[in-house]
Amino acid sequence: MNNRNQNNFYDDDIVRKFSIATMVWAGVAFTVGLLAALQLAYWKFNGGLEWITFGRLRPLHTNAAIFAFAGNAIFAGMYYSTQRLLRTRLFSDALSRLHFWGWQIIILLAAVTLPLGFTQGKEYAELEWPIDILITLVWVIFAVNFFGTLYKRREKHMYVAIWFYIATIITVAVLHIVNSIAIPFSFMKSYTVWAGMQDALVQWWYGHNAVAFFLTTPFLGLMYYFIPKVVKAPIFSYRLSIIHFWALVFIYIWAGPHHLLYTSLPDWLQTLGMVFSVMLWAPSWGGMINGLMTFKGRWSQVRSEPIWKFFIAALTFYGMATFEGPLLSIKSVSALGHYTDWIIGHVHGGALGWNGFLIFGMLYYIVPKLWNTELYSKKLAEQHFWLGLVGILLYYVSMVVAGVTQGLMWKAIDGNGMLVYPEFIETVVRIIPLYWVRALGGVLYIIGFSLMVYNIVKTIKSKRAPLTDTAISNLVNENVKDNKPRLLEGYATVFSVLALLAILVGSVIEIYPTLNVHQYVNPEVTTHPFSALEQEGRDLYVREGCYLCHSQQIRPLVDEKLRYGDPSTIEESIYDHPYQWGSKRTGPDLARVGKKYPDLWHYKHMLDPREIQPKSIMPSYYWLVEKNIDYSQIKKKLNVLKNLGVPYTDREVAYADTDAETQAQEISAGLKQQGVTEKTEGKEVVAMIAYLQALGQKGKK
Amino acid sequence: MSTILFMVAISLILSVTFVFCYLWALSSGQFNDLETPALRILKDDFKIRKNEGTTNEQ
Question: Is A181 helix (H, G, I), strand (E, B) or coil?
Fold first, then answer.
């Protein structure tokens, strides 16, 4: 029995590391989220600091929540369950540690670069190219470690959780690489190779499947392992899990275009995305039912088991979110819900309810096991559950009400065919009380989480030292020697290839036709690219995260035509690297804002929006007036864009910096004439004005 | 129109593929054992106790 061979023990240490990282980053993600929520209720919560103003804070929040909090939790749960399911230690201790520290470094880099404004301007894929490369490397390390573990497994049969992990690792790799391909023009800045409509499609193929394969499939895998373990009963239906797995991975990948309904994305793609989204109802609910029914016959025990409560609530929120998702993907529902806070409510139902609660339940279960002790207080866990639940409900209800209210106000048209609320700000002011309710929901959720931190710290402190790794029982497994084929679930390689094929079908059919984007372009429409200064302004627009509150995509709907002008066309954004269509209208759409107001209006509005619109909730961008334009990069920028197919002439590239300076001087002179006393020459605000005035001026016949 | 033809062709190919996949899965016995895999994971690894002579080294 005295076997000290490390390979006969599970690597529990790495799971402990990831568990603690999960808790730490959860605190960061939640706090940053609360700060962002408060800024929407009252803009001055940015403290006058550019680094934590909403446009830069929001990517920090989403990245921290998805990749730091959920990411570390996935790795903890996957490493814990994979070893036990395959009855072997992880492939390599060194790779595990590289994976852990690499991932933490990526998160730290994100936490530094995002507030500094280094962003690719693509939601959930904001991180710039050097960090993207690092992510790829760490993901490969993770994949090698995981598939290596699969290779040396003692249990030939792969349980359903493992299938979901395989699908996760493969698909996230494909998504990340395709979406992040970019050409750098400096150490920390680059332009994506995709442009306009094409970029929109690739981005939402990525964005939607980040939800699918980072926040759904790994969590379903965890669900399939931890719920039977906690309940001490087999999963409700193994048959259902087979069908639900293959249906889910095949269908999910097609659903991305539902984020682009009524945009200038080709119609066939919109319809395809909608149809597949509706089909997703079935496999999603298959998973939920499979999880919930596992509790069958044991419901009375839920009363006394807080961990069970977390899992049941998580599955219920999963069911709600996956019911609401297809609903929102129906074009007529999207017409109302898109661009509103309804979507924010929807994703937080999923993130706080499904992901958050599943993680909390998992941590309450594994931490006592990993530290070889008992949970410090069930009562605190119980209180955590109820506080969290009330928090999510406040969040969700307030945001859905806000979204529907605002959506209906935008759409309201009176008997004369005029907008009832022509002033956008009226629709904003109406929902601000709900922004406060949402923040209150966040506070409750965080208080609940704090109870958990206290509970877990106390639990860890009560450990029976020293810590040991769990020994693997039944080291000799006849299962491996069994020559009878154990079906598909026994062959890791075949299984992985099939999973890859399943996700590639939808990806190729959707993306391939748009590679030749010009077939959708009307040849009679001439589009000219942005001038050097406008492009510089565009980069500032991306840096400040303007797209997170302002869309640039007018849908062909009556109210939008009345409010913003003609629907956006495919031609208008054909040279946009990255596209900036946006997904939320906290402020009005900007697709046709160019030439609508004089330069002075924009200048005053940037400096203090309340001077123009007293009730505005937009922060003051005073630093744009203080900082100088960096003319030194402009040539390189235009050169990269030219290589990507933007039709700049050689002259335009060669004289990009002087052209930009000339245009900037003209704007500054104009501002001076209109009575601006401050020095604006060479300041960033001038580039921003140039860009805003160019919006909607492209792609004219 | 060309898009519709493209989509119809693709859906037909996909649905036929699915039918064959399903028939293959059924005949090759993919659904033969739907009980034991779900049960097998429930068995815990036994705890090592000090008096059994294992050390706490990792």
Answer: coil
